[in-house]
Amino acid sequence: MTSMLIDSHAHLEMPEFRRDLEAVIQRAKESGVGYIFTVGTEKKDWMRALEIAHSYPSIYAILGIHPHNAKEIDDQTYPTLRHLCRNEKVKAYGEIGLDFYRNLSPRDVQLKRFREQIELAKELRLPIVVHDREAHQETLEILKSEKADECGGIIHCFSGDYEMAKECIDMGFYISIPGSITFKNAEKFREIIQRLPLESLLVETDAPFLAPVPFRGKRNEPSYVRYTAQKVAEIKKVSFEKVAELTTENALRVFKLEFSSSSSPHPIPLPPGERGNNQEMK
Ligand SMILES: [Zn+2]
Ligand SMILES: [Zn+2]
Hints:
The protein is an alpha/beta fold. The protein contains nine helices and eight strands. The chain has helices spanning 21-30, 43-55, 77-84, 107-124, 136-145, 162-170, 187-195, 225-236, 240-254; strands at 5-10, 33-40, 59-63, 90-99, 128-133, 153-156, 173-177, 201-203. Strands 1-2-3-4-5-6-7-8 form an eight-stranded parallel β-sheet. β3, α3 and β4 (90-99) form a beta-alpha-beta unit. The chain is globular and about 50 Å long. It binds zinc ion (2 copies). One zinc ion (ZN) binds next to loops.
């Protein structure tokens, strides 16, 4: 049995990785991460995400307009995305959704652009990656009214309650768990995950954001997805291998990839963690 992991959501095109991307990708490989999905969230990042995906067989791209950037959408945006997303290395559309915590784009613009982009993803026959921060009700309403069950996808960095998770799963969505599940104050989140079926779960880093304990506050990177999977195993009282196996199968299914890796895992040691401030997310 392989214990390959998949990091379903990272931002390798961000400047945080400009200096040592090669080493970051190598460490991911050494710690058993078979595939990384890198998410280009705005125009300036799309080409870089595609370029990275084309440079490494183990990396794929996800492209779209983040709710933070919803106000930047113009006449050229969708035609460009429509073209870029037909690239064979693009496996999902996103991340799209609502962020009513930071409100970097006006809420009405976020709502409108979220609907439009679900429509576009369906046209492109791609699953969607949904970003929802403090907009649970509105996110659910739009997923339903736009019939997002037709494309399915992932609720990334899930932060809703059990009922919301259940409704999303019923619509054919997967729930993706970030490193924050390892945080001391995440007891409620752990209780929700404990009740959800492993068959509907994925793990992600959202690197460079949200590093798990023991790296909390540092720059996150795909190799750390192992700590998140380890925590899920503890919560669900199953082996690490079981979590790796199922979350990998789930990711391959949602992204419509063939299973093709036999990468051998090298468990990384657990150095004492230090805290810092890199806890924002995208
Ligand atoms: Zn996000
Ligand atoms: Zn993200």
